[in-house]
Amino acid sequence: MKNIGFLSFGHWSDSPHSATRSASDVLHQSIELAEAVEDLGGDGAYYRVHHFAQQLASPFPLLAAVGARTSRIEIGTGVIDMRYENPLYMAEDAGAADLISDGRLQLGISRGSPEQVIDGYRYFGYAPSEGQSDADLARQHTQVLLEVLKGQGFAEPNPRPMFPNPPGRLRLEPHSPGLRDRIWWGAGTRATAEWTAEQGMNLMSSTLLTEDTGVPFHELQAEQIQRFRDAWKAAGHEREPRVSVSRSIFALVDDRDRAYFGGSGGDDQVGFLEGGRARFGRTYAAEPDQLVEQLREDTAVAAADTLLLTVPNQLGVEYNAHVVESILKHVAPELGWR
Using CA atoms, how far apart are residues 277 and 269, in angstroms rounded to an integer? Predict the structure, then answer.
């Protein structure tokens, strides 16, 4: 069995071929797609966060709305760039969204990815200290977030408050018990996956790794997952960790699928990202029986408990629901995921 959800980047453009012409379109359709996928029996609705771009950027209003309009599926991010975040304010927003959804929030965070602008986090008022990198800044914000999500008091109360205080130091409110165990780190390397385990966060791995050893992407990612689990065990954490991977997978079951994605399948791609070699995973696009055989060989998908299907959101809610339904109906049962 495997949790299967969708991951949307939330693009919009004024192209006549786009079903999402504005931010309003994307936000409303993001909620509608979550409702449709829940009705189809899917397990999760996840959203990417990008600043300074015509894409989803403010996750917590959206997550709260999705939580209020659904009742069963997990809701999450993949991922929030922690370089931009005030971790205390973020903990309050996340706590509220989690309570609205009755504990279904799965919050994916990370250092982030290449940006639309140079050092965009500086416009948000954050900058690395002398001798720090931007990755250090993201991890620093993350450590604060993880600490305050424990729900322990840390702030000295006013002796003459406007409203009565409980005894002792005060914590952030609203606090959502259990949310600390549902934080995921988007790791782009094997070493970062090990660090993720040491911090007690779940592992989120996408279709990009910012390193390359010459082996196929799925093998490198499977090694990353194993290193994460080994480090988790060595750290002595009591709970079982979770692991998600994302994939672009399209079952060609009708003429629309063949027109959109009939020639999209292929091999891994190797390139350079931020000065280093990176390996990008392949797109899967084939008839359902072929997809089943191809995915049987994907060792990273087999190792993960959660699969996030990246969806072409600009093609509209109805078509993206069809993309997810095709996997749930024609592929997942044959692989034992359902």
Answer: 11
Q: Provide the mean pLDDT of the chain.
A: 96
CATH of the domain at 94: 3.20.20.30
The residue range of the domain holding 64 is 3-335
Task: Measure CA 304 to chain center.
Answer: 14
What is the CB neighbour count within 10 angstroms for residue 332? 20
Query: Residue 196, SS3?
Result: helix
Residues 6+ apart with CB under 8 A from 232: 197, 241
The domain tally of the chain equals: 1
Residue with tokens 């997978």: 249
Q: How do residues 134-167 score in pLDDT, each as one tens digit? A: 999 999 999 999 999 999 999 999 999 999 999 9
Q: Tokens representing 141?
A: 């914000």
Contact between residue 302 and residue 268 where contact means Cβ atoms under 8 Å apart: no
CA-nearest of 224, 205, 218 to 294 is 218
Read off φ and ψ for residue 201, nearest 5 degrees. -105, 150
